[in-house]
Amino acid sequence: MSALFEPLTLRDLTIPNRAWMSPMCQYSAAVEGPEQGVPTDWHLTHLGSRAVGGAGLIMTEATAVSPEGRISPADLGLWNERQQEAFGRVARFLAEHGAVPGVQLAHAGRKASTDRPWRGGAPVGPEEHGWRPVGPGPIPFDEGHPVPHELDEADIRRLVGAFAAAARRALAAGFKVVEVHGAHGYLIHQFLSPFTNHRTDAYGGSFENRARFALEVVDAVRAEWPEELPVFFRVSATDWLSENPEDPREGWTADDTVRLAKELLSHGVDLLDVSSGGNAPRARIATGPGYQVPFAARVRAETDLRASAVGLVTEPRQAEEIVASGQADAVMLGRELLRDPYWPNRAARELGAAGRWPHQYHRAV
Ligand SMILES: Cc1cc2nc3c(=O)[nH]c(=O)nc-3n(C[C@H](O)[C@H](O)[C@H](O)COP(=O)(O)O)c2cc1C
User: Which residues lie within the region annotated Disordered (predicted)?
Assistant: First the structure.
């Protein structure tokens, strides 16, 4: 029996296995006009291939809740009808092939308006379809980045509403899981971390104040999402700053993550998708196989919240061990699934479990 290929039931939703596709931006939508932010044939084929490959859950790339929340002008969005319709086609296809369709809702905050990575990823201005980013304060992400517009309380209320509206559209499009992107130095993480949040109002200062925006977003999304379906939250478990003796800059820590996990649970979140980093340029990160698994394991050991692990999980037996040992309830696969869309079906064969090959391919199984 393989733990990786055991179904997982969250609320009334059963996810057929625990090998899931991690959200990965494709930077491949139209940058202007009516098709702006709309999933294309690329997204359908890219996500669809991984459903055919046997992943239990497919998480879309960071999908912006408003235009200025896109990381690049070519990101997907879910703020209008046309986008909702096109996402409907994607979600339907994923479900038809046995994968649970999940959508990651995001706002990039001060890290928005950058070029596609393969063109260098530098900030872009209006001449290249860019815009002035927003953030918790007027502090740029890094050298060469613009000074963000500091959000006031009315802006924050509007953004919380944008997350709720996008969740409503995601549900109408057929998604069964919604994930709030609170990681990787994007807007919610910018509010959470003392490294990026220097506000003196109700949204800054104490842990409670820094977590206020995240929890307001979660409450707004939860209110739109049916009781019987799960909500996920992606967190960066650490900024890799104050916990590193060689980098004393004050940041978000693994202890903060455990504390936040308990809050999220009481606000109706069902699973914490545990990543790390992204908030502080030049933070020193000790990567290696499964390097973020211990953060997920802490959440599982110290709270009642479910957790998934992500980051350099590439081998079937490694993934099996993570789930079987109880370090995480599921694994998210990123780059390995880009290299091999059939990884889950290949892992199932290696672990002696039943994969999920489409009928059309049965002569090859
Ligand atoms: C091309 C690419 C795009 C990504 N886009 C996102 C994203 O939209 N949202 C997110 O939370 N993480 C994103 N990530 C991070 C992945 O989801 C994952 O956490 C990371 O790659 C580590 O897992 P891996 O070692 O299996 O690749 C991206 C990673 C890659 C390689």
Answer: 106-132
